Amino acid sequence: MGFLAIDVGNTRLKWALYDAPRPGATAQAHGVEFLDHVQRLADGAWSQLPEPTSMLGCVVAGDAVKRLIEEQMDAWELTPHWVVPGAEEAGLVNGYERPERLGADRWVAMVGARHHMLAQGAPRPIVLVMVGTAVTVEAIDAEGRFLGGLILPGHGIMLRALESGTAGLSVPTGEVQLFPTNTSDALTSGGTYAIAGAVERMWQHLRAHTGQEPACLMTGGAGWKMMPSMTRPFELVENLIFDGLLEIAARRFA
Ligand SMILES: Nc1ncnc2c1ncn2[C@@H]1O[C@H](COP(=O)(O)OP(=O)(O)O)[C@@H](O)[C@H]1O
Ligand SMILES: CC(C)(COP(=O)(O)O)[C@@H](O)C(=O)NCCC(=O)O
Ligand SMILES: [K+]
């Protein structure tokens, strides 16, 4: 019954082995690997696992990385399955012009977010922020329609872009300050408030569009960095992508 969930972003692969492909399943093991090191999985962390019977993942890191990861599963009987965003999934309707061009991680996280919100009470619109290598800000209405979303550079990309495009901006990481008075703090605060400001705008757009107060959810490896700087109360949910994969797997592998 073991179900392996895999989330491959542009920086890291996250995996978790659950006792079954269903929402609320228990994670028996989990781990993280930087993309440069995914070749270690078969002989490393995955060599210790009981053989999973099914696997579902989302990958935005490209086909070469995907193939490398599939090779790591060669010793197992299972067939690798990867989410391809379509017109609808698990109660969500995809408003993207070309649904298949939407990042699979965004789509899966939205499925997780929608079910997380429904478990808490009456349906509401959602602003979902995912802070990884890039930052995405999704708008979902109370009926589960994905209206559209923003893509921004993440903290690391913003800093590297400024470093490489200027002569005088190569400095250590600073702290978020209201009125930064050194270069490090100015860069760190600028990036953080760029993200917080974009999220605030999306919150306003969704509030105006739906006439309802949106629920605010945040996920992703660097979500914790953003939490203190948001203009609205956000709930940080560590594993929305895994929650989404469990929802989708329950429908596919039942
Ligand atoms: N221990 C950590 N290792 C790597 N990245 C981290 C760590 N803690 C926070 N981060 C931040 O999280 C981002 C990666 O988050 P993650 O969700 O794994 O991204 P992705 O899904 O794009 O691979 C990095 O850009 C970095 O800013
Ligand atoms: C926006 C992303 C780069 C985010 O990647 P991540 O930060 O999770 O590594 C990824 O979801 C992606 O490549 N999306 C495809 C383009 C789109 O969603 O429109
Ligand atoms: K991601």
From TrEMBL:
<keyword id="KW-0173">Coenzyme A biosynthesis</keyword>
<dbReference type="GO" id="GO:0005524">
    <property type="term" value="F:ATP binding"/>
</dbReference>
<keyword id="KW-0808">Transferase</keyword>
<dbReference type="GO" id="GO:0005737">
    <property type="term" value="C:cytoplasm"/>
</dbReference>
<dbReference type="InterPro" id="IPR043129">
    <property type="entry name" value="ATPase_NBD"/>
</dbReference>
<feature type="binding site">
    <location>
        <begin position="7"/>
        <end position="14"/>
    </location>
    <ligand>
        <name>ATP</name>
    </ligand>
</feature>
<comment type="pathway">
    <text>Cofactor biosynthesis; coenzyme A biosynthesis; CoA from (R)-pantothenate: step 1/5.</text>
</comment>
<keyword id="KW-0963">Cytoplasm</keyword>
<keyword id="KW-0067">ATP-binding</keyword>
<comment type="function">
    <text>Catalyzes the phosphorylation of pantothenate (Pan), the first step in CoA biosynthesis.</text>
</comment>
<feature type="binding site">
    <location>
        <position position="133"/>
    </location>
    <ligand>
        <name>ATP</name>
    </ligand>
</feature>
<feature type="active site" description="Proton acceptor">
    <location>
        <position position="105"/>
    </location>
</feature>
<feature type="binding site">
    <location>
        <position position="96"/>
    </location>
    <ligand>
        <name>substrate</name>
    </ligand>
</feature>
<dbReference type="GO" id="GO:0004594">
    <property type="term" value="F:pantothenate kinase activity"/>
</dbReference>
<dbReference type="Pfam" id="PF03309">
    <property type="entry name" value="Pan_kinase"/>
</dbReference>
<dbReference type="GO" id="GO:0015937">
    <property type="term" value="P:coenzyme A biosynthetic process"/>
</dbReference>
<keyword id="KW-0418">Kinase</keyword>
<keyword id="KW-0547">Nucleotide-binding</keyword>
<dbReference type="InterPro" id="IPR004619">
    <property type="entry name" value="Type_III_PanK"/>
</dbReference>
<feature type="binding site">
    <location>
        <begin position="103"/>
        <end position="106"/>
    </location>
    <ligand>
        <name>substrate</name>
    </ligand>
</feature>
<comment type="subunit">
    <text>Homodimer.</text>
</comment>
<comment type="similarity">
    <text>Belongs to the type III pantothenate kinase family.</text>
</comment>
<keyword id="KW-0630">Potassium</keyword>
<protein>
    <recommendedName>
        <fullName>Type III pantothenate kinase</fullName>
        <ecNumber>2.7.1.33</ecNumber>
    </recommendedName>
</protein>
<feature type="binding site">
    <location>
        <position position="183"/>
    </location>
    <ligand>
        <name>substrate</name>
    </ligand>
</feature>
